[in-house]
Design brief:
Length: about 400
């Protein structure tokens, strides 16, 4: 079918919207390098690992086991049990009796003005005694030497904040495709790699591994400044960068892993609490993202079949760039070896984009109609909108 001129112009715009980010991705494909092994300083500083946990009884034992097995010389691990109703408390009590480095804090009541996880992080950091703080999740499994290498690298590079991207474990083709798409959106579309560019103002934080110098953490106002942000991890990185602290994002998939969600449905449900907040709770921004997804991630796969002539050429290049870009970010975050299964994951990109769009729609609809529900508590949207997590930046820059 020959396309009308207006559609050809639209396809040309789609071509530019996809190819330009692809070129930037390829140009910066080494911009998020792996965490190197550097010579360690004579004395590593005291490190406090803060782990918030709510109903993590099935996973937290393995995660904490990997932390307790670390060869870091001066470490304390603070787990904040945030109102768990499963076996989390029992697992923690058993582990704490075996290793004095593990401190367990129980939270039974959530104070007003706090999200549960953010409050748990704040409580843990408040009890910490380390010069460095590592905020991580209760289902992250660390490889031996991960913490020594991370702190040694941060000191050698004189960083204030280091965040590592973990190896993402996903079971089932549909879930792997969705997780791969999320990684592609984070790196290629949102431009996470820009955090390593000193000329860029991009700030990045990843919940699985946010290593922060304590003095920097206190300077930005601690987690109190992010008490109502569902996107606390990435907002922490943005706030640190905006305050002028030295930051780096690296690939840590050889040293840590996490099973993000067990099923595709769980992944979509899990994103409902944070997708809208990442768009500053603006409906117009959400609509813009949905239109972008439809135009650049779904339409090209349809149009390349239906149309011919220059439109098919343009959209064919778009499809090729999308598949190549997703495979590149898949290689970085999920599997170094690109097997035939990886190609299947890439070909499911339109499906993943639709699922991502549905997560956005659900996030907006639920927030606008009932507020944001997280960890058993519902928060009115007016309360969440009142905090951007970036307050005080202008005043800080003027000091």
């Amino acid at each position: 079918m020959t396309a009308p001129l207006l559609l050809t112009v639209f396809d040309a715009l789609v071509f530019l919207a996809v190819v330009l980010p692809f070129v930037l991705l390829i140009r910066h494909r080494h911009a998020i390098p792996k965490l190197p092994a550097l010579p360690e300083p004579v004395t590593l500083p005291r490190l406090s690992v803060v782990v918030p946990a709510r109903d993590e009884g099935s996973a937290i034992g393995r995660a904490l086991g990997s932390l307790l097995e670390q060869d870091y010389p001066d470490i304390e691990i603070i787990v904040v049990d945030d109102r768990s109703t499963d076996t989390t408390g029992e697992v923690l009590r058993e582990l704490a009796t075996k290793d004095p480095r593990l401190l367990v804090i129980r939270v039974d009541d959530l104070p007003a003005g706090w999200l549960g996880k953010n409050h748990a992080l704040w409580r843990g950091a408040d009890r910490a005694s380390g010069e460095w703080l590592l905020f991580t999740d209760a289902d992250v499994v660390f490889g031996q030497g991960a913490l020594r290498r991370a702190v040694a690298y941060s000191m050698a590079e004189e960083l204030d904040h280091l965040t590592l991207a973990p190896h993402l474990v996903a079971r089932g083709v549909a879930l792997r495709a969705f997780v791969a798409f999320f990684g592609y959106a984070f790196v290629a579309l949102w431009g996470a790699y820009l955090a390593n560019d000193p000329k860029s103002k991009r700030g990045v934080g990843i919940g699985a591994f946010n290593l922060v110098r304590r003095s920097a953490y206190e300077r930005i106002g601690t987690m109190r400044a992010l008490s109502l942000r569902p996107d606390d991890d990435i907002r922490l990185g943005r706030r640190l960068r905006a305050f002028g602290f030295r930051q780096r994002v690296l690939n840590g998939n050889e040293l840590m892993s996490i099973e993000w969600y067990p099923t595709l449905a769980a992944a979509i449900s899990g994103l409902e609490k944070s997708m809208y907040s990442s768009m500053e709770y603006r409906v117009v921004d959400a609509v813009g993202v949905l239109l972008y997804l439809g135009a650049t991630m779904v339409w090209p796969f349809v149009g390349v079949v239906l149309l011919d002539g220059i439109d098919r050429v343009l959209l064919g290049i778009v499809v090729a760039c999308l598949l190549a870009a997703l495979l590149e970010t898949y290689r970085q975050s999920m599997s170094v070896r690109l097997s035939p299964a990886a190609l299947v994951v890439a070909l499911l990109l339109p499906f993943s984009a639709v699922c991502f769009g549905w997560a956005i729609v659900r996030s907006v609809y639920l927030a606008e109609t009932r507020g944001v529900r997280w960890r058993g508590t519902t928060y009115p949207l007016s309360l969440l909108r009142a905090q951007s997590g970036l307050e005080g930046i202008a005043a800080n820059r003027n000091k």
